[in-house]
């Protein structure tokens, strides 16, 4: 009887992989690949719009489902808002910045004349406020504070005031907790349209006036 004895070894071939965590997507590899075998196709992650509102033009965007925002969409919206302001002769652009300190936040405050940090008297609110203030200082953008619902936790409000004093920050206003926001929202109105004489409305008017005063002072300096 003929007996066969077989030995085997793994067949190995060279391959490649990309560390999706360490890769920053800078695209340098596209330019240095001698065979031009790498490509970074554009990905449509959302859409941007220009809308006319009863308060003036609004430039905004909507992300696609499960799409990430690296900050490029924010930059695009800000650039289009700047173009529109120049076309219409508008001298003020208000940018609604997202929470946190990531790329979208950096894109929203870069090149701004000032940052208004709206915080709330909670542990997480205080922590996020401190991070945003550090970010604004890093980019040398003047930061101002506003404490929303300041009357819900007086102790943390005092801690926020202490932090502002230590950092030389100006707290422009204190907005009380008020159900008028919900009532106005249900009616599709601003709180000024819903009740122009409310205490909260007066607090926001005072805040807005203080912010304009500081902006004009910085621009004329």
Q: What does it look like?
A:
The mean pLDDT is 88. This protein has a 3-stranded parallel β-sheet with strand order 3-4-5, sandwiched between helices. It is an alpha/beta fold. The chain starts with 27 loop residues before the first helix and ends with a helix. The protein has 8 helices and 5 strands, in the order H-E-E-H-H-E-H-E-H-E-H-H-H.
Strand content: 5-15%
CATH topology of the largest domain: Rossmann fold
Helicity range:
40-55%
What is the top-level CATH class of the largest domain?
Alpha Beta
The count of domains is: 2
What is the residue-mean pLDDT, rounded to a whole number? Answer: 88
What are the segments in which pLDDT stays under 50 over at least 5 consecutive residues?
Answer: none
CATH H-level homologous superfamily name of the largest domain? P-loop containing nucleotide triphosphate hydrolases
- The overall strand count is 5
Give the SSE string.
HEEHHEHEHEHHH
State the secondary-structure class: alpha/beta
Give me the Rg, rounded: 26 Å
What characteristic shape results from the CA principal axes?
globular
Distance between the termini: 103 Å
**Biggest beta sheet attributes:** 3 strands, parallel
Q: Which CATH architecture of the largest domain?
A: 3-Layer(aba) Sandwich
The number of helices is 8
Sheet with most strands: strand arrangement: 3-4-5
Summarize the structure.
This protein has helices spanning 28-32, 72-88, 103-109, 123-138, 154-167, 180-186, 191-194, 199-220, and strands at 46-53, 56-63, 115-119, 143-148, 170-175.
């Amino acid at each position: 009887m003929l007996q066969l004895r077989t030995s085997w070894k793994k067949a190995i071939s060279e391959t490649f992989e990309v560390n999706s965590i360490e890769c920053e997507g800078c695209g340098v590899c596209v330019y240095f690949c001698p065979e031009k075998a790498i490509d970074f196709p554009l990905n449509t992650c959302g859409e941007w719009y220009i809308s006319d509102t009863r308060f003036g033009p609004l430039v905004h965007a909507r992300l696609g489902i499960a799409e990430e925002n690296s900050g490029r969409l924010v930059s695009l919206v800000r650039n289009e808002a700047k173009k529109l302001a120049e076309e219409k002769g508008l001298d003020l652009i208000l940018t609604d910045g997202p929470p946190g300190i990531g790329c979208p936040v950096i894109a929203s405050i870069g090149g701004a004349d000032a940052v208004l940090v709206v915080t709330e008297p909670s542990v997480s609110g205080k922590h996020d406020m401190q991070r945003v203030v550090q970010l604004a200082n890093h980019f040398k953008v003047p930061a101002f504070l506003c404490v929303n619902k300041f009357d819900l936790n007086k102790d943390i409000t005092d801690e926020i005031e202490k932090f502002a004093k230590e950092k030389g920050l100006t707290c422009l206003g204190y907005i009380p907790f008020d159900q008028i926001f919900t009532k106005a929202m249900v009616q599709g109105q601003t709180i000024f349209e819903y009740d122009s004489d409310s205490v909260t409305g007066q607090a926001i008017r005072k805040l807005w006036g203080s912010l304009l005063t500081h902006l004009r002072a910085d621009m004329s300096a």
